[in-house]
Amino acid sequence: DAKTTQPPSMDCAEGRAANLPCNHSTISGNEYVYWYRQIHSQGPQYIIHGLKNNETNEMASLIITEDRKSSTLILPHATLRDTAVYYCIVSPRHGNKLVFGAGTILRVKS
Amino acid sequence: EPEVTQTPSHQVTQMGQEVILRCVPISNHLYFYWYRQILGQKVEFLVSFYNNEISEKSEIFDDQFSVERPDGSNFTLKIRSTKLEDSAMYFCASSYTSGASEKLFFGSGTQLSVL
What we know:
Chain A is 0% helix and 44% strand. Chain A has no helices and nine strands. In chain A, strands 1-9-8-3-4 form a five-stranded mixed β-sheet, with no helix packed on it. Chain A has a four-stranded antiparallel β-sheet with strand order 2-7-6-5, with no helix packed on it. The N and C termini of chain A lie far apart (38 Å). By secondary structure, chain B is mainly β. Chain B contains no helices and eleven strands. In chain B, strand 4 and strand 5 form a beta hairpin. Chain B is globular. The chains are: A mainly beta, B mainly beta. Chains A and B meet through strand 4 of A and strand 4, strand 5, strand 9 and strand 10 of B.
C-alpha cells in the first residue's frame, strides 16, 4: 500500500481557505486518494476522494497533481467547526482496509 | 443521511471480563469493519467482514477477538477476556462495496475502559 506524508499541524483563519497538502509519491495507477477527518475523537468522516481528476463536493475540493504524486484538500471557507485531524489516505488495490496515518491537525482560529 | 449506530457509547469493564460492542451498519451496506484508536494514537484497522465471514484481519485481531452478524441488522465485536491494553475507542464502519473507490461510513464509537 502506498504511504502518505502530511504536515503535523496547520492553522487557518476563520473564513479563509484551508489548503492541506499531502504527498503520495509511490501511489499506483489504480489507487484512489481519500480524505477523511476526525473531529475530537468522533468517528472518522469521509470528505472526498479522487483518482486523477480534480473533484469538488459540498464539503471540499481535491486537487491532484498531474503526476498524482501529491494532492491538496481545500476547504474554501473554513469555520471553527472544521477544526479536526485530516487524514490523507491512499486506498488499497483490493478491499477497504484504510490505513490511517497521523494526519494533519487543522486549527481554525477566529 | 443514513448513519452507523454504535452502542454503548461508553463501556467500563474489569480485566478478564468479556465485552460485546454492538453496531448497526447502514441498512443496504454489505461490508463491515471494526477499527480502534488508543488514546493519542492512530486509528487502527482490526477486521473486515463480508458475507458472514472475516475477509481480512490485522495482527491486533487475535484469538481474544471475534465478530458476528447475529441477525440482519447488527454487527458485533466480542473481546473474550479483556486486558488493560484493550482500553480504546472502538469504531464500527460499513460500506456498500469493497472497491477501491468506495467510501466508509463510521459510527461515533464505543469508549472501552478496562480497569
